[in-house]
């Protein structure tokens, strides 16, 4: 099964997606998600200019060899652009192998370890009433685990909180814009407010509902330690990205102060970013995206390493992961033993027109379906109707104008 064509498709239904299409001499098509939010065209160029010429004529069955070849022959290792490009090739090759075998991909990864994949949804509100409405709406839609994000008095725009009207346009908890939108931040105001929100949510919705929260990299280690400690009475499923993720040492300090479970890693792209975190058991959940961490081949190894330390998966799944990337995550979630939870943010209607999907969401559980391969096919005619639109993520400034982590 040799690759005869490789093509990069950029499309923007609801938002930008970059997709790799591989075609083989036995007439199969494999799909890989190459989307890197806000830096989409850099991965498209990496693939088109530097990877596509290397793929033509290669045996599509040699997934491990292709991964090692792309990683090592570039000489320049790691980084989000490189690892997203490698992930797109890897996922497309797994799609092809599973299609050639006539099996859903999870069967090739060892078969199902569970009947469904527990998913969490994103609830948010600018005030308590809006937040409670959003939580109720998610419960009505079937979610059994909820991420809670809320505005903070004294801060104008906070990550993860979007007006209900805008949310349906953006399909993401961030204000994307033609130029980076400026948001503001005040850690002291945030630290005072968040425990009161979780107290109110627990009082209203009871002790059982698994609740999650994303700090989005904004605190210093000692502030994060304080937040983790102050949230202990509310029994969080996890506290995500409490400090900027690249400093692994910071988590040692946080861990020494709190038993609130910690999740980290959506901006990571290799196992090396987790080396100390996993070995020293400083986290509880691995947050990487399959699509930004070298694909299924690399994620499987990373999660197997984590499993030795009872650390579980919490694979990244906001709408900037395309339905192809989501499907890759779902097949892995179903197969691995140390599954924790899957993030799930439903895509918009135009996205679902372009990406024909077979995965299901019922009673809080996702399932990738049983079509051969990933179970997602891109409709190229539909994709061509939605040209690329420049879109940046927002950024933060403190009250005195200093740029802060977003
Ligand atoms: C999450 C993430 C996302 C990111 C987004 C950036 O936990 O889902 O924090 O919302 O902000 O993926 O591209
Ligand atoms: Mg996050």
Task: Write up this protein.
By secondary structure, this protein is of the alpha/beta class. The protein has two domains: 3-104, Enolase-like, domain 1 (2-Layer Sandwich); 108-372, Alpha-Beta Barrel (TIM Barrel), CATH 3.20.20. It is built from 14 helices and 18 strands. The chain has helices at residues 40-55, 63-73, 80-101, 105-108, 128-140, 164-170, 187-205, 221-230, 250-257, 275-279, 295-307, 323-335, 349-354, 380-384; strands at 3-11, 17-24, 29-33, 117-125, 145-150, 182-185, 211-214, 238-240, 262-264, 285-286, 312-315, 341-343, 355-357, 360-362, 365-367, 376-378, 395-398, 403-404. The strands form four sheets. Strands 4-5-7-8-9-10-11-12 form an eight-stranded parallel beta barrel, surrounded by four helices. Helix 7 (187-205) runs parallel beside helix 8 and helix 8 runs parallel beside helix 9 (250-257). It is globular and about 60 Å long. The chain binds D-gluconic acid (GCO) and magnesium ion. Residues 37, 173-174, 214, 216, 266, 318, 320, 343, 393 line the site of D-gluconic acid. Magnesium ion is lined by residues 214, 240-241, 266.
Give the SSE map.
Blueprint: E1 3-11, E2 17-24, E3 29-33, H1 40-55, H2 63-73, H3 80-101, H4 105-108, E4 117-125, H5 128-140, E5 145-150, H6 164-170, E6 182-185, H7 187-205, E7 211-214, H8 221-230, E8 238-240, H9 250-257, E9 262-264, H10 275-279, E10 285-286, H11 295-307, E11 312-315, H12 323-335, E12 341-343, H13 349-354, E13 355-357, E14 360-362, E15 365-367, E16 376-378, H14 380-384, E17 395-398, E18 403-404
Parallel strand pairs: 4-5, 4-12, 5-7, 6-17, 7-8, 8-9, 9-10, 10-11, 11-12
Antiparallel strand pairs: 1-2, 2-3, 4-15, 13-16, 14-15, 17-18
Helix pairs in contact: 1-3, 2-3, 3-11, 7-8, 8-9
The chain binds D-gluconic acid and magnesium ion.
């Amino acid at each position: 099964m040799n690759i005869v064509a490789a093509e990069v498709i950029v499309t923007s239904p609801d938002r930008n997606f970059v997709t790799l299409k591989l075609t083989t001499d036995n007439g199969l098509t494999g799909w890989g998600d190459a989307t890197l939010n806000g830096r989409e065209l850099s991965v498209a160029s990496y693939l088109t200019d530097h990877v596509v010429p290397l793929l033509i004529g290669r045996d599509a069955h040699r997934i491990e060899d292709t991964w090692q070849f792309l990683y090592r022959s570039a000489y320049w290792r790691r980084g989000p652009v490189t690892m997203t490009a490698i992930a797109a090739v890897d996922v497309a090759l797994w799609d092809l192998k599973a299609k050639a075998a006539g099996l859903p991909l999870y069967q090739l990864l060892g078969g199902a370890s569970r009947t469904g994949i527990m998913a969490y949804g994103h609830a948010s509100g600018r005030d308590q009433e809006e937040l409670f409405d959003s939580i109720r709406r998610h419960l009505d839609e079937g979610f059994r685990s909820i991420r809670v994000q809320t505005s903070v008095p004294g801060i104008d725009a906070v990550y993860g909180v979007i007006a209900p009207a805008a949310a349906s346009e953006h399909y993401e908890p961030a204000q994307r814009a033609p130029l980076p939108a400026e948001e503001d931040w005040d850690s002291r105001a945030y630290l005072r407010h968040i425990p009161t929100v979780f107290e109110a949510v627990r009082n209203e919705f009871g002790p059982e509902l698994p609740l999650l929260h994303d700090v989005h990299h904004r605190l210093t280690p000692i502030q994060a330690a304080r937040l983790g400690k102050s949230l202990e009475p509310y029994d969080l499923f996890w506290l995500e990205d409490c400090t900027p993720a690249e400093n692994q040492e910071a988590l040692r300090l946080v861990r020494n102060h709190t038993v609130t479970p910690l999740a980290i890693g959506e901006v990571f792209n290799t196992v090396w970013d987790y080396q100390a975190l996993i070995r020293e058991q400083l986290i509880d959940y691995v947050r990487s995206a399959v699509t930004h961490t070298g694909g299924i081949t690399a994620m499987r190894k990373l999660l197997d390493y984590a499993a030795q330390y009872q650390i579980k998966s919490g694979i990244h799944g906001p709408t900037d992961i395309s339905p192809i990337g989501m499907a890759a995550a779902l097949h892995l979630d179903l197969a691995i033993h140390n599954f924790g939870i899957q993030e799930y943010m439903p895509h918009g209607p135009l996205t679902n027109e372009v990406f024909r999907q077979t995965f299901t969401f019922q009673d809080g559980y996702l399932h990738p379906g049983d079509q051969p391969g990933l179970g997602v096919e891109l409709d190229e005619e539909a994709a061509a109707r939605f040209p690329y639109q420049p879109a940046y993520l927002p950024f933060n400034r403190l009250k005195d104008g200093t740029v802060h982590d977003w």
